Structures are given as C-alpha cells and as structure tokens.
Amino acid sequence: QVQLVESGGGLVQPGGSLTLSCAPSRSIFSINTMGWYRQAPGKQRELVARITSGGSTNYADSVKGRFTISRDNTKKTVYLQMNSLKPEDTAVYYCYADRVRYYGGTVGNDYWGQGTQVTVSS
Q1: Among 5, 12, 21, 64, which is 20 to 30 Å from 83 by CA?
Q2: pLDDT tens digits for 33-82?
Q3: Rounded to an integer, what distance in angstroms lies between the CA atom of residue 16 and that of residue 83?
C-alpha cells in the first residue's frame, strides 16, 4: 500500500502564504483524483480543493480566489498554494488520493496523508 507524504505546513501571519505538497511514498503508475481536505478543532473535515488527472478543479467557496491546487502527473505530486491566509484557515490539512493504479494493474481507492498543521496567527 502506498502512503501519501505531505509537507509544507507551519505557522504564518494573516495575509501570508504557504505551499503544501503531497507525494506518494513509492512509485505508482497513476492517480485519478488528488485533493486537500482540512479539519479545524471541533469541526468536521471539509474539502478544500481537488484536481483530476485531466486538470479539472473544484474549490470550497471559502478559498476561491486565494488557494490554487495543481499537480505534476510525472511526479504524482499535488500542491496547494495558499495566499491571503486568514485565521479561519487554521486547521490540519490532509492530502487525499483516489483511484491509485499500481504497476501491475491493481487499483486502490481512498488514500489519506497523515495531515500537516497550518496555523494562521499574528
């Protein structure tokens, strides 16, 4: 089973920027949908943004115009560029991957990273 490895979280002041990245722990053939979810204390996990292998994207209304999701299909890596960060963006951000195809043809669904903390505070 592949693991998703996230990086890029941290502490940033309001109005600042951070970039998250997520890559598989081993070589795989392809991934269909990749995305980012977040969970703030006392709240349910929510979709932030997702992107298909063809480049179609979806964003939560709360991040439209501030966050940009992108991916490198060669590296099987997904990125989340977060600009104009607000205190309400504070949460643990989780990488997500669906329809992971391994070399040899096996397909797995619903993979999650371990989460990376993003804290927006002055």
Answers
A1: 5
A2: 999 999 999 999 999 999 999 999 999 999 999 999 999 999 999 999 99
A3: 6
60/66 Cα distance (integer angstroms): 11
Give every CB contact of residue 25 below 8 A, 6+ residues apart in sequence: 2, 3, 4, 5
Task: Confirm if 32 and 14 have CB atoms less than 8 A apart.
Answer: no
Distance separating alpha carbons of residues 40 and 58, to the nearest angstrom: 20
CA–CA gap between residue 57 and residue 34 (Å, rounded): 10
Distance CA 40, CA 51 (A): 22
Angle 30-104-96 (CA atoms, 0-180°, nearest 5)? 35
